[in-house]
Amino acid sequence: MSLPEKGRGAEELLAEIARLRQDDLPVRGGKVTAYVYDTGRPEVHEAAAAAYFEMLEVNTLDPTAFPSVVEMEKQVVGAVAELLGGGCGIFTSGGTESIMLAVKAARDSRRVPGRPRMAVPVTAHPAFHKAAHYLGVEVDPVEVDPVTFRASPEAAEAAITKDTVLVVASAPSYPQGVVDPVAELAGIAAARGVPCHVDACVGGWLLPWLREAGARIPPFDLSVPGVTSLSCDLHKFGYSPKGASVVLFADPALRRRAYFASASWPGYTVINATVQSSKSAGPLGGAWATLHALGREGYLELGRATLAAARRLREGLAAIPGLRVLGDPESALVAFGSDELDVFVLSDEARKRGWFLQPQLSYAGIPANIHVTVTGVTLRGVEAMLEVIAESARAARERGPARLPEGLVELVAGLDLDALDDAAFAELAASVGVDLGGSGQPEMAVVNAVLDALPASKREEILIRFLSVIYS
Ligand SMILES: Cc1ncc(COP(=O)(O)O)c(C=O)c1O
Predict the structure, then answer these.
(1) What sign has the CA pseudo-torsion 339, 344, 347, 349?
(2) What is the mean pLDDT of residues 325-350?
(3) Ligand 1 mean position to 57 CA, how many Å?
(4) Of 132, 153, 127, 131, whose CA–CA distance to 142 is shortest?
């Protein structure tokens, strides 16, 4: 775009946004089983949007200039702490930022002789790898049980060294929706004097309601001895607009290690609780309003519906020939795989039928599979979802596995990406039938099959190049 010579009216701009969004996945209705969290109650999302808008131009940079931010944040963090075992916290922009701050706090609270390290289950979210990358921390991977997909306490114990600053557990891990043995992992960490972070980004505002609705949920929060910090995203099962998470610390001294201040310049004094400095208070307003609009009763009702839908989905999947649920998830995140058909083709088939089912690549001995995040709205459409999965499975069986051009995987594996510019990479992709400039509903099975056949480091190189191409 070039900047328009004259300003344009809001109506025209909104029409253009509607056009830009025409190929987007729908954010409501439950046919998109990742990325979006729908209560099925428009009035709740409308209240959040209005509050978001009201706080939009407030800058959280200086809490003394905008005391509303302090009051709202204390209320939101207080509600999270009340549900999840106490402590004090920080409102952040999302799971990644919460995790980043937890890793920074752990790193800065524990002086170690060598380069700081953390023990991270292989199923933990890549936000830990990102935090490690940004903060100069090394990751020691902790294997998971090949049947339950829960982190192995023995492996975690073996991974701890004199330089370990943090042990990580997930409640639950995203890929299979299972809760790691938090009490054991935290106990092991505590015995070695190491902090333990529970990543409850996806589960923190879900598991307590599922428990109250009758699910068996093991202890996982800050009340568990040895747990020193916990992340809980309100923009997931809190159903808040995006940009809302809380990181809790058991001890205010640890929270202070997450903060940053700088007086080393001649401008205004900088005090930041988060990675970002200037930022809109909109997400805070949206989260605050969502919590108030739903209340305990609302979340419990959504928890009941979510639990019923997750149970029905697991049961229905088990009855579809060729499919099997991975592990025994306590949460509402369900992954299913197959030894008989190509799950990437199944996912494309579902997309043709108007449903987005998220493909997950194989990793660390865990097979490729499809991930479904069940939310409050899923129950209304769970039978339709099962029908689509069954139909898509039949179609995938008929089509057979994604056919890769001969030698493609070897070609990609051997590519020296540094020798290719973005245009040459896009051309190469097009020559094997992958249109990187395309929109709409792309067939992804071939791309996923190629990525699946590559080691993680090569996948990462390709993904970075892909991003560079789509933004060029
Ligand atoms: C368990 C877990 N941790 C962390 C994150 C990262 O959250 P965000 O995308 O808000 O940064 C996610 C996102 O799905 C998650 O599921």
Answers:
(1) negative
(2) 97
(3) 26
(4) 153
DSSP string over 326-358: -S--SSSEEEEE-SSS-HHHHHHHHHHTT-B-E
Q: What is the pTM of this model?
A: 0.96
Which residue type, as a one-letter code, is found at position 91?
A: F
Mind listing the pLDDT tens digit for each residue in 264-316? 999 999 999 999 999 999 999 999 999 999 999 999 999 999 999 999 999 99
Q: What pLDDT sits at residue 435?
A: 75
With the most atoms of ligand 1 within 8 angstroms of its CB, the residue from 96, 129, 134, 182 to mutate is 96
Handedness of CA 264, 268, 270, 276 (dihedral sign): negative
Angle between the N-to-C axes of helices 42-55 and 282-318, in degrees from 0 to 180, rounded to the nearest 10: 150
Place of tokens 């690549």: 361
**Tens digit of pLDDT for each residue in 413-472?**
999 999 999 998 888 888 777 777 666 566 789 999 999 999 999 999 999 999 999 898
Quote the pLDDT of residue 194: 98
Residue 280 · residue 57 · CB < 8 Å? yes
Pocket flag, ligand 1, residue 240 (CB < 6 Å): no
Dihedral of alpha carbons 80, 82, 86, 90, sign: positive
Cα–Cα dist 47/129, whole Å: 36
Q: How many residues comprise the chain?
A: 472
Does 50 score more than 60 pLDDT? yes
Mean pLDDT over 181-202 rounds to: 98
Mean pLDDT taken over the chain: 96
**Could you give the 3-state DSSP secondary structure of residue 92?**
strand
Q: Is the CB of 127 under 6 A from ligand 1?
A: yes
CA of 95 to the centre of ligand 1 (A): 5
Neighbours of 398 (CB within 10 A): 10
Burial of 261 (0-12, 13-18, 19+ CB in 10 A): exposed
Query: Does any ligand 1 atom lie closer than 6 A to the CB of residue 180?
Result: no
